[in-house]
Amino acid sequence: MKKRVKVLWIFLLISSLMLAGCGGGNADEYSDDDFQVIGTESDTSHKLYLINQTGSYIKHVAVKHADSETYSENMMEKGDTLSHEYCAILWHDLGGSKDQGEIHHLKIETGNDGTYEMKALNLHDVDEDLEIYVDEEEGIAYAKYYSLSTGDEVNTKSRELKIKAEEETEDMYAALDMVVDKLEKQIKRHREKLKTHKGGGSAAKRSLREPQEGRGYEADSPGSGEEPAGAAGDLPIDRRQTVRPESLTLAEAGARLSETATGQVIFINTEDGRLSILRQVFGGRLELVTIVD
């Protein structure tokens, strides 16, 4: 029994020595010379133990405030790498501020040429050990550490995923805005070309009086023909149109809209086979109206 207790005690002692300074909380027992150093120590720098859990070696480390435009230069010496499951001292200098409400960004490059940014960090709130992980399937890096302010374990993965989703949504809307802006500019250019300086009014006005051949419209002369059945006898109708809508894709309808002076295109949407109207509304935005049975 005593022998087994002695063996167990030796095992625990060896385990604690292996963890010391890199996840074991006993870094003070070791000299800084025992660890690789990233960054430069100064009166305003902040010391952490960076633990690589990415599955590959790290060859680039940079930090910045969330509101800064650019990262610092690579804090690692040229040619240096930090192997997987190895620990290094990280000296970061973010202006000497110790505000635990700040948000910092940390960028790493790994041996498989992956570049990752962590944007949900507060490096001043890290209690010594900062473990860095990579989720290649999600395309993110995240951190685990203990909070100086609360003592709780922090895992930034969910926040990093949320930030990534928000940025991808912003990129999608930005791309849509670019398409709309391009269509609006095309419409404006074509309308300016249709304007004339003298006689007969603008081409846009003439197009309302003339048949639009090849565009699926037939226009009757004002007052010609008999009034359609069911029309209100007292309703003043200045112009009638017979529309033969063409089958168009939405992109083709958008191009057609830029060529017409009426501000709308009536067509059969090839995507769903329904009668649709693409028109420009207040503010220059585009509106798609789908006619359902």
Describe the protein.
The protein is an alpha+beta fold. The protein has 2 domains: 23-155, Immunoglobulin-like, CATH 2.60.40; 167-218 and 241-290, no CATH class. It is 24% helix and 28% strand. The chain is built from 4 helices and 15 strands. The protein has helices at 2-19, 157-194, 203-209, 250-257, and strands at residues 36-38, 46-53, 58-65, 87-92, 104-110, 115-121, 129-135, 140-146, 153-155, 217-219, 241-243, 246-248, 264-269, 275-280, 286-290. It has a 6-stranded mixed β-sheet with strand order 1-4-2-7-8-9. It has a 4-stranded mixed β-sheet with strand order 12-13-14-15. β8 (140-146) and β9 (153-155) form a beta hairpin.
Topology:
Blueprint: H1 2-19, E1 36-38, E2 46-53, E3 58-65, E4 87-92, E5 104-110, E6 115-121, E7 129-135, E8 140-146, E9 153-155, H2 157-194, H3 203-209, E10 217-219, E11 241-243, E12 246-248, H4 250-257, E13 264-269, E14 275-280, E15 286-290
Parallel strand pairs: 1-4, 2-7, 12-13
Antiparallel strand pairs: 2-4, 3-5, 5-6, 7-8, 8-9, 10-11, 13-14, 14-15
| Helical segment count | 4
Tally of domains:
2
From N to C, what is the helix and strand string?
Answer: HEEEEEEEEEHHEEEHEEE
Distance between the termini: 86 Å
Regions with little confidence, pLDDT below 50 for 5+ residues = 1-21, 202-214, 217-225
CATH superfamily of the largest domain: Domain of unknown function DUF5300
